[in-house]
Write a structure and sequence with these properties.
The protein is mainly α and 84 residues long. It is built from 1 helix and no strands. The protein has one domain.
């Protein structure tokens, strides 16, 4: 019986050691991935901001052009009405 308990204790210790090693490797991988995210996050944020600004500026330009075209049409119609 003592031999069985000793073997179980030995296997349990080996398992705990292996588990601790795997946990340390996992922690190291998480730390490494976190560092990559910390480095990439500002770049991604800036790229997203640029893309949003480009879309906004494009829409603003389109809306400004539309309003300008409408003003030109109103000016032309008003000039035509005044001439008549």
């Amino acid at each position: 019986m003592t031999v069985i308990v000793a073997q179980i204790t030995k296997k349990t210790a080996a398992f705990q050691t292996e588990l601790a090693t795997l946990m340390e490797k996992l922690k190291a991988q998480f730390k490494q991935e976190n560092e990559k995210l910390v480095i990439n996050l500002p770049e991604r944020f800036e790229a997203s901001g640029r893309k949003l600004r480009e879309k906004f500026n494009s829409k603003l330009h389109d809306e400004t052009q539309d309003v300008s075209d409408r003003v030109d049409i109103l000016n032309r119609d008003t000039a035509h009405d005044i001439d008549n």
